[in-house]
Amino acid sequence: MKALLPTLCAALLAAAAPAAHADYPDRPIRIIVGFSAGGPTDVVARAFAAYAAKSLGQAVVVENKPGANTILAAEAVAKAPADGYTLLMGATNHTMIPALYGDRVKFDARDSFAPVCTVAVSPTVLVVGPSMPTDTLAAFLAKLKAEPGKHTYATPGTGSSGHFASAQFLRLTGTSMNHIPYKGASQAITDVMGGQVDSSLATLGSVLPQVQSGKLKALAVAAPERLAELPQVPTFEEAGLKHYRADAWYGVLAPVGTPAPVLARLSQVAAGFARDSASAQSLKALGMQPRPVCGADFGRQLTQEITEYRALARDLDLQAQ
Q: What start and end residues bound the annotated signal peptide (predicted)?
């Protein structure tokens, strides 16, 4: 009889597991954001949290944990219990971090997390503030070439999508600027508007209201065609810079080992958010488009991006100090 006890216990646990997962969620869920409040990742997280709370019938709370280029937040989620109650609102920079930090970080976007879904994407826009009074990409480039190393660009942090986009831009144009990293997009854009920093290659979601109000000037968008939100702004291709494109995704990641039924439920909610007409309108107002890429497809995207950004960081000699 004693010999049968381990087998019996295992069978009982296996039988109980589906029932436990069927009750998910039975308490509030946390979504950790690696940036300060007000930036595009935070805005997407809060919109998703509101939708998820209605869909799941539980409170979904957004917790901001900025610092170290989102590494603090990512490491906290990677170490959290794999039960679906602590999630990460990931972004493109989470596939860039391995290229910059290597073994110095305690997580890997491919191995430490279970991919749920991307929910939105935002193109990148070159914006300038009052300290860089140029109206076209050509004039901007002429100023950089006439005054090499004098001007500045802001990003949400070293290794962020804005940092990689800027490094690519400088390489393609043969120009140089000084990098001013911040702990999030909100403060970076505030300082561009204030004239403390000259420019930023920023996600559309982080600068659309400021461009529409005239507080920032958009010179070009890194997208295949002009944006409906900014029809007067040319693409980089139209403005004379060929083969330059950059965008940023936002998506939900869970700790690796999260049970498949929980991941399936979260994927269902995330895909529903991306398809929801009200959500689509709110994202569009922020300069974003809904784009659900879920499960294994999202995982393949993560793997591909990590490989590509490692190669790019090596080519551009980018590394975190």
A: 1-22
